[in-house]
């Protein structure tokens, strides 16, 4: 292989003088890899610049026992250590998938190269800037997918409950409506006067308007059901217990039944009360379907707001509260699992801020999710925001175990994590810092056992 010819045909070297290409060749060594050989592994010292002359390397990261693909270093790729790079250890793995030949320059030669080989150094520095940008983009995308993966189980659970309620209530409603014609026939045959119908409807509509009685203890409910069952049995109703359950749901009391009895004849009373129970049962089932459907609608809305499906990647003026609320909705399952109390203190008149909605939702997700993980059951999470001059300060405070002082300075470093293998990538807070910097903001943290506080400062304009 003519190495000089290979380098000169590489687009990266198109503007590099031949004498500098020759310098590179004179100071480099050839490394030959067979299929399956590693050019580097995670944690290896990065002390060489390398150029792929032949073959290719597969680049991947390990997350638990799973390999996360980053891509391939094809023929012509320049990688490894680059001038002025702060990279000291490999963050991932590079393995040969074809017979591969590398031209490798040790970092010991970098000082001489920087002082004497100007065009070569300039080209490599530009490559380093591009590599940082590409890797940051990969980090953000990978962390976003990890976040969505962690949230998917909770979302499935949150959506499954109301969806199952809709199916259950609609099936029950369908069976219930099958008995309506028979009950209607009994009511029509009674030939009630208009005045009597209006008086019964007055009771009915007042109970429907008030809605189901929900704040009631089991003991209180049992007592009310027993009282109504006794009343109904005394007045000749065969299915007294079932009707009593229905009436207690809508706070229909023995006094209400006495009033109805005064307005209709004793013979008509059973049919009237059965009809009342039928209408209230229908109302309850329809309300359950409406409530479950509304819950699904709110979840879908939260997902759309969280993922910013209706918008682009540009910054927009938005209300900070909406993004935080949608994030809390997305994380509701984790909050409920630990029975965590959430206090959201954000003024309604807080000025809008100019942000990339999807990216900032990722910030809130990482910070809140970390807070949840740090707390025991029945923890307390406080989120507050306020205006400070031309900035909005957002505080996320938890009463968890806190961050040890000895690692406080490392929590924003790439790949640093205190979570068990497979539970964290160590990218979350690093990406949080990156996104906030892109928004010309700042983040700081104060922590002690029982109180950890992340402060996010974002400019209003």
The beta-strand count equals 15
* SSE sequence, one letter per element: HHEEEEEEEEHHHHHHHHEHHEEHEEHEE
Give the mean pLDDT: 83
> What's the multimeric state?
single chain
Strand content: 15-25%
Question: Over all CA atoms, what is the radius of gyration?
Answer: 34 Å
Anisotropy-based shape: elongated
Order of strands in the sheet with the most strands?
Answer: 10-12-13-15-14
Structural class, by secondary structure, is alpha+beta
Largest sheet: 5 strands, mixed
Tally the helices: 14
Report on this structure.
- With about 450 residues, this protein is an alpha+beta fold.
- The chain contains 14 helices and 15 strands.
- It has a 5-stranded mixed beta sheet with strand order 10-12-13-15-14, covered by helices on one side. It has a 4-stranded antiparallel beta sheet with strand order 1-8-3-6. Strands 2-7-4-5 form a 4-stranded antiparallel beta sheet, with no helix packed on it.
- It starts with a helix and ends with a strand.
- About 0% of the residues have low confidence.
Q: Care to give the gist of this entry?
A:
The chain is an alpha+beta fold and 461 residues long.
Which helices and strands, and how do they pair?
Layout: H1 3-9, H2 18-26, E1 28-33, E2 38-40, E3 48-54, E4 57-63, E5 66-73, E6 78-80, E7 93-96, E8 100-106, H3 110-116, H4 118-177, H5 180-190, H6 194-210, H7 218-234, H8 240-249, H9 254-263, H10 269-307, E9 316-318, H11 320-330, H12 332-337, E10 341-345, E11 353-355, H13 357-374, E12 380-388, E13 391-398, H14 428-438, E14 442-448, E15 451-459
Parallel strand pairs: 10-12
Antiparallel strand pairs: 1-8, 2-7, 3-6, 3-8, 4-5, 4-7, 9-11, 12-13, 13-15, 14-15
